[in-house]
């Protein structure tokens, strides 16, 4: 199979290229999620067009010279000085290479990887390549290069029909009792109120940094009022609703939070994002209370959804303990690899 490498720059790409790209992406999507509705193309385009300060996204495509179809893609993410986590994470570039099953051969992946290396060389501070994926052929590719398995996790799903509402109600009840006894308040927002955004951003950073990331040399970037507002804007641009539920202790401190995302363009599901409770407030039922209250919120606001989706590291015992009892089931396994840039170059030479 002969192929050529082309750039995909979403805001400059013509319709023909975008449509071929979506054809490719939909084949991959069907392989991974055979029974799910496709991502509508207008939403997919919006998702391609959003950007985040301090991130450079490079996309390159392998296009068949014979048929003109897209058969592979490189997605490369590098951070720059404007990223709030530049100091901690500048060494890492994320590299995602996905080839269609029927065209899977090492040479396309290797050519795309060489393209990635050429790009990365312009950023002398990058020393590590990291990659996560759900496909066995991608795991094999990284393992073949000698990359280290840094983290294993799962995409889990909870189907609404399987929820044990009695247990959810019990967790809520226990939460209300704790709230009364220890004067804990529950609050919710979609747009973070201006008067708490600084405090909330600091708490969010602290809680994100409690999530286990295995052997990744990665520290979640500080969330700031600027990055929070930018994320809100990006969700608005792509049509996502972002709902947060959080707890505040008697001493005034925000102790825990949980958040979800919902898009009218993908009305069959809700994505459960971060849930966390600060170390000193754990083991009192706050995690279960937050998740239970969010379930009720979801049922009231999005009654038509089929399932809730969440991702967890296999090593995250407390979160898995809660999610398992709620009825979340493993849907896909995710494996994340890391490799020193030097070693990667050696392997390819
Ligand atoms: C997961 C987390 C939110 C739980 O918060 P919490 O307020 O302590 O949760 P709760 O007290 O409601 O419940 C925790 C449950 O996990 C269980 N648990 C805790 N550690 C456990 C372990 N190592 N193995 C098995 N179960 C465990 C507890 O027994 C408890 O259940 P129980 O009350 O029925 O006995 C908290 O540990 C956390 O913030 N972790 C870091 C952030 C994170 O990784 N989030 C998930 C990624 S999105």
Q: So what's the overall shape? A: globular
Number of strands: 12
End-to-end CA span: 22 Å
Strand order of the largest sheet: 1-2-3-4-5-12-6-11-10-9-8-7
Whole-number total of structural domains:
2
Write the CATH fold name of the largest domain.
Answer: Aminopeptidase
How much beta, percentage-wise?
25-35%
CATH classification class of the largest domain: Alpha Beta
CATH architecture of the largest domain: 3-Layer(aba) Sandwich
Provide the residue-averaged pLDDT: 97
- Poorly predicted segments: none
The biggest sheet, with number of strands, parallel, antiparallel or mixed sense and barrel status, is: 12 strands, mixed
Number of helices: 11
Identify the CATH homologous superfamily of the largest domain: Gcn5-related N-acetyltransferase (GNAT)
Oligomer: single chain
Plain-language structure description:
- This protein has about 350 residues and is of the alpha+beta class.
- It contains 11 helices and 12 strands.
- It has a 12-stranded mixed sheet, sandwiched between helices.
- Coenzyme A binds near residues 210, 211 and 285.
- Coenzyme A binds near residues 274, 318 and 322.
């Amino acid at each position: 199979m002969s192929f050529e490498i082309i750039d995909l720059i979403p805001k400059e790409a013509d319709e023909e290229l975008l449509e071929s790209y979506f054809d490719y992406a939909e084949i991959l999507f069907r392989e991974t999620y055979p029974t799910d509705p496709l991502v509508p193309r207008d939403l997919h385009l919006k998702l391609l067009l959003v950007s985040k300060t301090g991130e450079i996204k490079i996309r390159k495509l392998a296009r068949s010279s014979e048929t003109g179809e897209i058969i592979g893609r490189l997605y490369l993410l590098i951070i720059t000085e404007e990223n709030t986590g530049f100091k901690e994470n500048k060494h890492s570039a994320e590299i995602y290479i996905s080839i269609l099953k029927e065209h899977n051969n090492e040479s396309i992946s290797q050519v795309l990887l060489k393209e990635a290396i050429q790009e990365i060389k312009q950023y002398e501070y990058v020393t590590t390549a990291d990659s996560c994926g759900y496909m066995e052929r991608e795991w094999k590719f990284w393992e073949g290069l000698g990359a280290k398995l840094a983290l294993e996790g799962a995409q889990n799903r909870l189907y609404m029909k399987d929820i044990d509402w009695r247990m959810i109600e019990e967790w809520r009840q226990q939460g209300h009792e704790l709230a009364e006894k220890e004067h804990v308040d529950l609050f919710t927002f979609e747009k973070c109120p201006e008067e708490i955004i600084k405090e909330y951003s600091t708490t969010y950073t602290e809680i994100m940094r409690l999530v286990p990331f295995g052997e990744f040399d990665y520290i979640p970037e500080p969330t700031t009022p600027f990055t929070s507002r930018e994320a809100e804007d990006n969700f608005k641009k792509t049509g996502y609703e972002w709902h947060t539920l959080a707890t505040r202790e008697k001493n005034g401190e925000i102790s825990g939070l949980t958040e979800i995302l919902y898009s009218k363009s993908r009305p069959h599901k809700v994505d459960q994002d971060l849930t966390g409770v600060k170390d000193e407030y754990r083991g009192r039922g706050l995690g279960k209370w937050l998740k239970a209250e969010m379930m009720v919120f979801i049922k009231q606001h999005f009654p038509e959804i089929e399932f809730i989706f969440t991702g967890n590291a296999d090593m995250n015992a407390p979160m898995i303990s809660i999610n398992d009892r709620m009825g979340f089931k493993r849907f896909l396994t995710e494996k994340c690899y890391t490799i020193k840039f030097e070693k990667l170059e050696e392997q390819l030479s």
